[in-house]
Structure formats: structure tokens, C-alpha cells
Amino acid sequence: MPIDRGLFGWRLLLIDKNKQTVFDKIKNIEDLSKLNAGLGHDWPDVDIFRNNQLQVSTSSSYEGLFQMLARQHVDYFPRAVVEVWPEQAAHAHLNIAVDQQLVVHYPTAAYFFVHKHNHFLANTLTRCLTQAVDDGSFNQLFKQHFGEAIAKSNLGGRKIIHLQNPLLPASTPLNESKFWFSPEEDLE
Predict the structure, then answer these.
(1) Hey, where are the domains in the chain?
(2) Cβ contacts of residue 89 below 8 Å, gap of 6+?
(3) Are the C-beta atoms of 27 and 159 separated by less than 8 Å?
(4) 3 falls in which pLDDT band (50, 70, 90)?
(5) Using one digit for the tens of pLDDT, what is the confidence trace for 121-148?
(6) What's 7-170's CATH class?
(7) What is the pLDDT of residues 57-68, one digit of tens each?
(8) Is the pLDDT of residue 157 over 80?
């Protein structure tokens, strides 16, 4: 069960604030493929973006990615909806803004891992997390922690560009909608 409900696969784009009109014209993945994303050289996102025929430039420095964007060496820097707002605020002096109309989405998941021989803990976590999803307490905690960033992101009002994720194992329960965040959810 993904403990982040796949939220880190919902990516808003940090851009040069003077380039919003360029991003307003993007309607699909083919349009986005004409632009260059900035990503960390060892991030799994690199493989995901490249597998979807998107241009990527990488940096070994997290802060270097903001500099690459500010110097227009890349066109955008995709960040999770829970990361993008504080990062934009911290780098506003670099003329960086959050694109107003796009969201890039690919399925991804964060999991708890336990020692392979600790079946008791694995079963207990699975049982308790599933119960929390079923009784609504998991989603309540999710909303408490991420609701403000999700609401600010206005995902339902954005054009969604879906990417395939070749890194997801076949065992990922993508067909279990109760485990995954969707912009159509009521987060009030």
C-alpha cells in the first residue's frame, strides 16, 4: 500500500515567471517534449521522463537546478505538489514561479519496508494501514498533512499530462483506487 497515496507523482512545474505564455500553449506530451526539464542526476524521475521522450538535463546539485532554471539552461523543474510551494517561495528572488496551467502525473509510490524475515511486522503494518484506509482515518491524516498544498495546487483546474512509469513493479496495486490520490477528491 502506498503510504503517500502516489501524491509525489503529481508534479507542478517551476518555471521562469516571464515564460508563462510558453507553458500556456502546451496541450499534450508532444508539446512538452519540445522543452527541457531539469532533474537531479540520480533521481528516478530522469528515467521516467526520458522513457516518455521528454528532454532532460541533470545536475548533481539540488540548488544547482534552481540556478539552471534561473539562467534558462532548462525550461522547467518539475516538483511534487507538496514540495513546489515552499521551494518557489525560497527561490522567488531568482524570478521563479509555479506554472499556472499544467500538472505532470505519473504513478509512483512510497512504501514502508521491513526486514524480509519480519513477517509479523509486515502483516501488522498491512492490516493496520488497510484498516485505516477502510475506516477513513488514513485519508483524514493525509488531508491534514497535504490538504493545503493540494488545494493551493488546483489540480482539478489544470491540464494533466500523464506519463508512464517504467520503474513501477507489476505488483503495484494501481487498480485499487482507494489507495491512490485523485484530483477529483473532496479534500474539505
Answers:
(1) 7-170
(2) none
(3) yes
(4) confident
(5) 999 999 999 999 999 999 999 999 999 9
(6) alpha beta
(7) 999 999 999 999
(8) yes
